[in-house]
Each structure stands twice: as structure tokens, then as C-alpha cells.
Amino acid sequence: MHAFFATIRTSYRRQLTYRAANLSGLATNLMFGFFRAAVLIALYNGQASVNGLSIQGAITYAGLAQAMIGYLSFFQWYELMHTVYDGQVGSDLLKPMNYFSYWLGIDTGRALGAFLIRSLPLFLVFALFYDIVLPPTLLHWLAFLLSLVLALLISFSYRFMVNLAAFWTPNALGVGRFAFGLSWTFSGFYMPLALFPDWIAQLSRVTPFGAGVYVPIEIFLGIVAGKELLNRLLLQVFWVLFLGLLAHFVLARGIRKLVIQGG
Amino acid sequence: MKRAIGLLAKLLRIQVRSQLQYPTSFILEVFSSAIILGFFFVSFALTFSRFDQIGGWTLGEVAFIWGITEFSFGVMDMVFSGFDYDSFGPMIRNGRFDQLLLRPVNITLQVLGSRFVLRRMGKILEGVIIFIYGLSLVNIDWTIGKIIYIPILSFSQVLFFGSLFIFGATTTFWTMERLEILNVFTYGGSEIMSYPMHIFPRAIRLIFTFLVPAIFMSYFPAVYILEKSDPLNAPGVVSFLAPLLGLGMLALALRFWKVGIRNYQSTGS
Asked: Which of B24, B51, B57, B119 to mutate to test the interface with A (most CBs of A within 10 A)?
């Protein structure tokens, strides 16, 4: 456990050292947030609410979705893959620490750093420009924070597994591009799921991608409450457990396949 | 000149052949990337079913410029892959760029031939499909002028995006790292060019008019081709500046590139 926290701490510090990169990423996500908000405003064209999503909610969504990118890193992540191809994986596997936990530690540190200096300031600046929605109750705030943690675990287990493809093939980038394409597609990142035809919205919501990206947003916006909110959190818990177990299983199989290069 | 073109063709042929080593996997990648990239438009179209317009434009009209922009960006991303600042940074850091400098061949040519990402066919294909979908929805009053202007516009867009890539790659000479903020102009530029641009706030419009002239590359030409009324009340001539600005930007970008190379100091690795 001590090693796990040490890993988080180191990775967190490392994330904070990339100041220029973080600032540049923040500005980029912020601009895209403005673009998407403008598109939603133009679509709404003065309507107060569409299918239960208010215009303020839609605008807030645009900022939140961009803020989630840095923290969740759900759409692109090849760090583990690189260590397989440069041979670093050999010494990582020799560490007296579970390989999954080791990377979870690294990713948690990265996420914490990104949250503090990228996601949070981005959303605060975004909020200066627009009339945004905040979670309606204290319960929503707490549920939102919890769902953010669960979302990171979902995102991590998925990315971990995708990267493990490198244990099997010397060119897993194609697998990665496809897998991350899926997470772009079903996460409700391009457009709020509430504006989709209902059946597609429902389908996307139950995928790990919707559960990872869109559920925290819905809770933040206060679209769900009571029993529905609890169901959303349970859905997230399901994906955390399922993907976590699956990742361990894939890892166990992968280690037998792994051919270490260079090193 | 003839030798240069022959050489470039040779470099590109090597690239293409190596990428076609696994044809099945290549074709799969092209189609899957077309589908995945296309989903952004699909999301927009699905959402659009709950609305009836965006800035006074129909879905077909948006698809029309969306398709052209995706197509041009895809072509550019394939042809100008060597200048993609995502891969140019590593090329400088690991010293591969120094190797190129040592060869007695024009450096710009070598960079252009150093990478040719064939799987961008996926994005090109996606753009074509969206464009055709747009054409099927809108009723354009075709004139010879419009028919000739569409390919010219697309070519101008290729030059426009290509110039942005060259600018981006050149900044790497000083920063050594790719600057993510450049994405605002390249990928972000292509994103906002896919919509009727008058919907964006004034500050964004000013940036994409005077700093990066994206608005002349899609919105104004589309106002002419689709015969839309322009809430910005710009004079008619702005619809036809695309080729001029495309060439101008390329000239400027190459100028900057030359300055960058002259001031380039290797990382020493």
C-alpha cells in the first residue's frame, strides 16, 4: 500500500512539472469548449429546454466534457504500450508490486495532477464566460465527486486493457486507435446524449464510455436524482468491477505471451 | 526540378509500399477510421433531428461544407504528413532531422517525403460520403462558376491546412515539443469551418478571420455556392478569396519554415 501511494505521489509530481504542456492543453480544451457551446447555442436558437436539457445545461455540458479530457484521458493513452516496445516493461514486471496496481498508481497521480492544473481551472474560466448550471444539492455534489472517481477507474481499466494488446502484437497502435474510437463514439462527448434519439442515448449510457464520461456530467447538471442517480452510480460500480476483473484476467493471459524487446 | 519530383515520387512509393504490407489490416483500418471519424457528423445529424436549423442553415447545407472540409483536411493530412507537428517534434528530438540535413537534397522535399500516412484515406472517404449526403439534401442552383469553384475551394483548403501544419512544424524548431494549442487552429479550425461560421462569438470569428483566415475558406465560399444570406454582411468578393489566401499562406509558411531551418540548432542527440 505504501508503494502504491508513493507511485501516485511521484506520478502526480511528474504531471505538475509539465507546466507549458498543461497550460497549452488547458487553453486548447477551453477553446473547443467555446466552439461546442456556440454550436449548441445556435442549435437551441432561443429555446429554453430541449428534451429535458436546458440551454444552460447544454452549455455547462460543453465545458464539463472538455474539462474531463485531461482528467479521464479516456480518448488517447499509449503510455503502457510504449513501455512494452522500449523494453521498460521487463523491469516494471519485476517490481514487487502488482502490475495493475503499479499502473493504477501512475494513472491516479496523472489524473490528480491533470484535474488540479488542467480540468479545474478550465472549468472555472469557462464558467466566467457563461451562465452555467451547478449541482442542485449537496448530495449531487458528493455523488458527482464519487462518480468522478468511479469514472477514472472505468477509464483506467479500459485503457490498461487496450494497451495490453501490445503484449500480443508488435503493432498494437491500430487496436488502440479503434478502441479509443469507440470511446469517442459512445461517451456522449461530441453532443449531449440527451439530444440524441432516445434509444441511442440509452445504449450509449450503459456502455463503459457513457458510464465514464456522461454519467458524471448528468449528475453535475442535476438531470438525475433519487433512485435514478443511485442506478447511475451502480452502473458505474458494475463497470469498475467488471473491467477491473477483466483487466486482471487479460493481464494474466498476456504475461504468458509477452516477448520483451531490447530492455 | 525534374530530379526533385522523381525523388519525391520514389520516397512516397517506399512509404506507400511499406504501409500496404498488410493489405487486409490496412483496408480494415481505413474503413474503421472512416466510420469512427464519421461519427462526429452522425452525432451532429442525430442531434439535428431535434432542431430544424443551425444559424439559418439546414442539415444538408452543413453537410455540404462539413464534407468538403473533412475531405480537404484528409488529403492535406496525407500529403503533408511529414509536417505533422505531432511527429515532427520527435523527429527533431531523436536527431533524425539532422540526418536529413546532411543529405545533399532539398530539405523541404525530404520532410515532405518522410511520411505519407495512407490510412488518411479513411478521413477522405468520410469527407466524400458526407459531401455526397449533403448534395443529396440541398438544391443548389448549379452554374459553371460553382462547379469549377468547388474543386478550387477544396484545393485552397488543402493549402490552407498544409500551411498551418508547416507553421506548426516550424515552431518545433524552438520549442522541441509539439504545442497542443496549435490544435486549436488546425483541428479546431477544421471543426468550426464545418459550421456556418457566423454562429460563433465575435472574438472567435475575429481570430479566424484575421489571424487565421479560416472564414474565407468555407463560410464565405459556401454563402456564394449555397446562395445563403450572410448575417455578417460581408462584400461579395470575400467568397472568392480562398485560392489567393491559400497560396499566400503557403508562401508565408514556407518563408517561416526557411527562417526556422536557418536558426535551427540541433538538440545534439
From this structure: B51
